[in-house]
């Protein structure tokens, strides 16, 4: 059987169909979820895709956190339900306080789309378990507000608890603290990642197929449950 | 001010009206009076003035553009031709593709970010209106000198505006051009192209028929932005003495457009509209009059029902407002409930503002008072047509008789310096400072994007069907000979499509020129249209639509004639596309196509302040053979890259830098061979085991081929000149960050 993974569409979500494709390529069944409903449709994990939810007005992710679907996701996540937030999804997770910190304007103030090298730092989350520790991957990065910021105490906590899951390598694209590209919650079921693994699932359309491992990881973890 | 109704207009025939301020000539105003049999109301005057502006009515260009229809080839692939919002082409497997380019030049000069952003928004709505899901955008851009202060104001704003709007819509930006020339100072060109895809049965048209069917306005509320934008901004040359026109530029809200796209696509899927039209230039004036005149003619609009952002707007302003992100649909009463439910799901405001009537007139009332009573066709289609005077400009004789020389490098060191200078020059330098501000990945179907020869998008991930799009113009050749320039631009665009492995299928265009009131400019325009129509006929390609932008000039100085030609191609299997970059060492390098030394209009001449004397002459018989050669040879090509701006020097450097794999080549008459831009040539790499095949292809298509070298190493070696990839990369990539931060 194949596991059901939800993809939330907020008004202004853009990479929802790409995330669904990545789930299908990884062997799962992608289930569309709509922001205005709190029904998780019996999915076993969820992806919050990239985009500009609600136009990113006010602050990225700040309005999306109040969507009915987010109430269900926050409650489930607190009980270990796997959630991956990509780009705007990461911003939504921070605004929802499932993850600490905030994503701010890139340091050079430009939107940036590039093939970005990353180092996978933590392979103990449900979304990264298929990687080797220290593995270097290349996946697209594309955002205007991707600079991860937090206070020193939070930064130390994230580093000490090994919750930085990926770091930018060779090039600092946005001024994130400690070159942080992605983090997880303490339990490792909630992951936020600025770059886009769903755009690196086939050689034809992406810079690599490295991104697929995020999706195969969670499917394997679901088998183990 | 009291409401100027039809009754008032009849009772007070002599009221003075500001037709001149609205851009109407006295004879045009007189014609409106003849049509109506009375003076127009102020609302009618507003409608006629925007719809009869150059931008909306094509009054100076119409007489020439009809050649596109007269000379056109009969193409089975063309499902919808010129005249609708965008042409639609059959690409097989029941898919139809629509594509179109439009200019947003003047607003982008005044307010770079919003001007460029709303340019993207407008073209995307044109594509959406056809029933298609927009799948990609491209932006051909032209600026004044790269180091000019105004370019530093305009370029970053335009690029950010295109990115800000397009990225937020989730449309990959897959190509375009950036060209600098003195004549574009004060007249930057911002052309925006969009491609969309649909199934054949989903094609929608802008028409209103069926008495009693409802007219629904949906999307953003109407505000005071862009009032008179069309007639004031696009029909007048900039003049420093006049007051600022800033408020005329529209303000875009890409989020509103994104939900409007999803809302429309859901509405189309449920088959809920009879006809649909977007609100762009001339706003409601345009949408209502075009919808009505494409149907039976009768329509009643209750203008007070239009939802307003600014309640103080007068009826005239509501009719002229160019507020963005609005659509107008004709819906059967039985389907309105379903229609409204989908709008509600997407939080899109939708209002029934009127209905289709049995008569032949467009009636607009405001709180029950009749303020517009016109035959809609007279507004939408029967605008004035000018046969403007044409005169071949004097500069051409002078140039044709002139000789010109540019210094050419001779020894190895000079050649190295020349190559580095060329590839660092703004027109040739790496453009990733710009393209990295655009999302090329979204939707997950981008197979090729800038700097590849054409953008290539997968349409179906089961059958691997895809489309390729390229836009091209060489304005310097058009300046030297607009007839040949147009032909060469179309040939180049086709070549770029075929270079990536796709078959050219259809043509669109955006013709950017100076003032049509200048007979010299008008001659350039006429020659361009003649050239493009002839070339399309000769290459068997239908022209599916286009756009004209006049008045791109400051004082007496017009821009170089800049016909931007877009070509759409189809590729049966996107996995077989040919990329531009040399993929590996040990391959043979060939130049396909005949070379002759001519530096006229070349980048090398431009770098020395010269434009040359005579444009190359397009050899379309040869170009057609080249396209077929490229398509048949596609399986043996490891890479292929068109030789164009910057000549073979730029082509080689770009092919080497893409994957950082070097090459060693030997060239006769090396300097001319490197910097001449002889059209009709492509650089390819292939395995030596494919030698027999390429030789036999050359024989079959009677095209000269030249083996110029092999691939590999960490340098580009040309005869005795050796340049490391690092040096090339540094020269090529440093220019834009240095100029624009």
Quick synopsis:
The complex is a heterodimer of chains A (225) and B (741). Chain A contains 5 helices and 11 strands.
Oligomer: heterodimer
Low-confidence parts of chain A, pLDDT < 50 over ≥5 residues? none
Roughly what is the average pLDDT of chain A, rounded to an integer?
96
Distance between the termini of chain B: 51 Å
Structural class of chain B: alpha+beta
**How are the strands ordered across the major sheet of chain A?**
2-1-3-4-11-10-9-6-7
CATH architecture of chain A: 3-Layer(aba) Sandwich
CATH superfamily of chain A: Class I glutamine amidotransferase (GATase) domain
The number of helical elements of chain A comes to 5
Which descriptor suits the 3D outline of chain B?
A: globular
Largest beta sheet: strand ordering of chain B: 8-10-7-11-9-12-13
Mean pLDDT of chain B: 93
What class do helices, strands and sheet pairing of chain A give?
alpha/beta
User: How large is the count of helical segments of chain B?
Assistant: 26
State the total count of DSSP E strands of chain B: 28
Radius of gyration of chain B: 26 Å
Helical content class of chain A:
10-25%
Describe the 3D structure:
The complex is a heterodimer of chains A (225) and B (741). Chain A has a single domain (4-223), classed as 3-Layer(aba) Sandwich (Rossmann fold). Helix content of chain A is 23%, strand content 25%. Chain A contains 5 helices and 11 strands, in the order E-H-E-E-H-E-H-E-E-E-E-H-E-E-E-H. Chain A has helices at 16-26, 68-78, 88-95, 152-160, 212-223, and strands at residues 4-9, 29-34, 45-48, 83-86, 102-104, 112-120, 136-143, 147-149, 164-168, 180-184, 190-193. In chain A, helix 1 crosses helix 5 (212-223). Chain A starts with a strand and ends with a helix. The mean pLDDT of chain A is 96. Chain B has 741 residues and is of the alpha+beta class. Chain B has a domain at 6-54. In chain B, the strands form 5 sheets. A 7-stranded mixed β-sheet of chain B has the order 8-10-7-11-9-12-13. In chain B, strands 23-25-22-26-24-27-28 form a 7-stranded mixed β-sheet, sandwiched between helices. A 6-stranded mixed β-sheet of chain B has the order 1-2-3-6-4-5. In chain B, a hairpin with a 2-residue loop joins strand 12 and strand 13. In chain B, helix 7 (112-129) packs parallel to helix 10 and helix 16 runs parallel beside helix 26 (725-740). The longest helix of chain B has 21 residues, at 149-169. The two termini of chain B are 51 Å apart. The chains are: A alpha/beta (225), B alpha+beta (741). Chains A and B meet through helix 1 and strand 6 of A and helix 8 and helix 10 of B.
């Amino acid at each position: 059987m194949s596991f059901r993974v939800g993809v939330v569409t907020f008004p202004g979500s853009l990479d929802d169909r790409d995330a669904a494709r990545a789930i299908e390529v990884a062997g799962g069944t992608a289930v569309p979820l709509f922001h205005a409903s709190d029904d998780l449709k019996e999915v076993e994990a969820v992806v919050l895709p990239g985009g500009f939810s609600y136009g990113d007005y006010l602050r990225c992710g700040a309005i999306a956190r109040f969507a009915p679907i987010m109430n269900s996701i926050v409650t489930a996540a607190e009980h270990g339900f796997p959630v991956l937030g990509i780009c705007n999804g990461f911003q939504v997770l921070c605004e929802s306080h499932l993850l600490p910190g905030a994503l701010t304007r890139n340091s050079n103030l430009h939107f940036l789309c590039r093939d970005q090298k990353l180092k996978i730092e933590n392979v103990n989350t449900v979304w990264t378990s298929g990687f080797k520790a220290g593995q270097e991957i290349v996946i697209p990065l594309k955002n205007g507000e991707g600079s991860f910021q937090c206070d020193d105490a939070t930064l130390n906590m994230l580093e000490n608890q090994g919750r930085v899951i990926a770091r930018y390598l060779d090039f600092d694209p946005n001024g994130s603290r400690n070159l942080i590209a992605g983090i997880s919650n303490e339990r490792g079921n909630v992951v936020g990642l600025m770059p886009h693994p769903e755009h690196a699932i086939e050689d034809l359309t992406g810079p690599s197929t490295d991104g697929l491992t995020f999706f195969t990881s969670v499917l394997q973890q679901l088998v183990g449950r | 001010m009291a409401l100027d109704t039809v009754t008032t207009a009849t009772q007070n025939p002599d009221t003075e009206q500001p037709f001149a301020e609205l851009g109407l000539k006295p004879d045009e105003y007189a014609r409106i009076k003849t049509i109506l049999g009375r003076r127009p109301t102020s609302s009618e005057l507003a409608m006629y003035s925007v719809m009869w502006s150059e931008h909306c009515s094509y009054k100076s260009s119409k007489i020439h553009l009809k050649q596109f229809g007269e000379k056109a080839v009969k193409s089975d692939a063309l499902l919808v031709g010129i005249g609708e919002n965008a042409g639609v082409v059959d690409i097989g497997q029941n898919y139809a593709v629509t594509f179109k380019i439009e200019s947003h030049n003047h607003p982008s000069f005044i307010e770079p970010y919003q001007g460029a952003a709303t340019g993207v928004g407008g073209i995307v709505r044109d594509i959406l209106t056809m029933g298609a899901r927009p799948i990609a955008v491209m932006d051909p851009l032209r600026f004044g000198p790269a180091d000019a202060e105004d370019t530093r104001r305009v370029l970053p704003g335009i690029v950010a505006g295109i990115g800000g709007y397009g990225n937020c819509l989730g449309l990959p930006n897959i190509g375009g051009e950036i060209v600098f020339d003195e004549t574009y100072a004060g007249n930057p060109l911002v052309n925006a192209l969009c491609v969309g895809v649909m199934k054949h049965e989903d094609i929608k048209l802008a028409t209103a028929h069926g008495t009693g069917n409802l007219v629904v306005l949906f999307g953003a509320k109407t505000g005071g932005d862009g009032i008179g934008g069309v007639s004031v901004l696009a029909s007048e040359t900039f003049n420093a003495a006049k007051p600022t026109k800033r408020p005329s530029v529209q303000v875009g809200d890409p989020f509103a457009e994104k939900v409007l796209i999803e809302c429309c696509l859901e509405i189309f899927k449920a088959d809920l509209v009879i006809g649909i039209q977007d609100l762009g230039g001339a706003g409601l004036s345009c949408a209502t009059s075009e919808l009505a005149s494409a149907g039976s003619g009768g329509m009643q609009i209750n203008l007070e029902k239009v939802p307003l952002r600014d309640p103080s707007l007068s009826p005239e302003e509501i009719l002229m407002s160019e507020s963005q992100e609005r659509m107008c649909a004709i819906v059967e009463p039985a389907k309105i409930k379903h229609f409204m439910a989908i709008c509600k799901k997407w939080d899109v405001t939708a209002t029934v503002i009127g209905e289709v009537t049995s008569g032949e007139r467009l009636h607009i009332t405001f709180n029950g008072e009749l303020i517009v009573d016109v035959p809609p066709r007279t507004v939408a289609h029967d605008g004035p047509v000018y046969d403007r005077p044409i005169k071949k400009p004097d500069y051409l004789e002078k140039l044709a008789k002139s000789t010109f020389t540019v210094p050419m490098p001779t020894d190895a060191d000079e050649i190295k310096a020349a190559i580095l200078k060329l590839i660092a020059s703004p027109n040739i330098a790496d453009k990733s400072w710009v393209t990295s501000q655009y999302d090329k990945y979204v939707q997950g179907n981008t197979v090729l994007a800038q700097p590849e020869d054409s953008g290539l998008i997968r349409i179906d991930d089961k059958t691997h069907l895809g489309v390729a799009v390229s836009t091209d113009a060489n304005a310097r050749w058009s300046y030297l000979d607009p007839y040949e320039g147009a032909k060469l631009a179309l040939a180049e665009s086709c070549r770029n499509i075929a270079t990536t492995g796709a078959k050219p299928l259809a043509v669109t265009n955006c013709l950017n020129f100076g003032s049509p009131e200048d007979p010299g400019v008008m001659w350039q325009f006429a020659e361009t249209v003649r050239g493009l129509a002839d070339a399309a006929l000769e290459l068997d390609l239908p022209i599916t639509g286009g756009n004209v932008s006049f008045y791109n000039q400051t004082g007496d100085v017009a821009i170089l004639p800049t016909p931007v030609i877009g070509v759409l191609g189809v590729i049966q299997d996107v996995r077989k596309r040919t990329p531009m970059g040399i993929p590996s060492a040990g391959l043979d390098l060939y130049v396909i196509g005949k070379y002759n030394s001519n530096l006229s209009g070349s980048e090398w001449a431009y770098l020395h302040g010269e434009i040359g004397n005579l444009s190359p002459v397009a050899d379309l018989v040869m170009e057609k053979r080249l396209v077929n050669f490229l398509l048949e040879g596609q399986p043996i090509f490891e890479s292929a890259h068109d030789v164009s701006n910057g000549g073979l020097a730029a082509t080689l450097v770009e092919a080497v830098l893409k994957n950082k794999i070097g090459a060693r080549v030997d060239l006769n008459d090396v300097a001319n061979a490197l910097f001449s831009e002889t059209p009709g040539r492509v650089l390819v790499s292939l395995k030596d085991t494919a030698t027999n095949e390429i030789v036999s292809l050359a024989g079959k298509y009677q095209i000269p081929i030249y083996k110029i070298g092999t691939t590999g190493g960490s340098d580009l070696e040309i005869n005795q000149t050796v340049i490391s990839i690092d040096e090339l990369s540094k020269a090529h990539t440093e220019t834009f960050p240095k100029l624009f931060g």
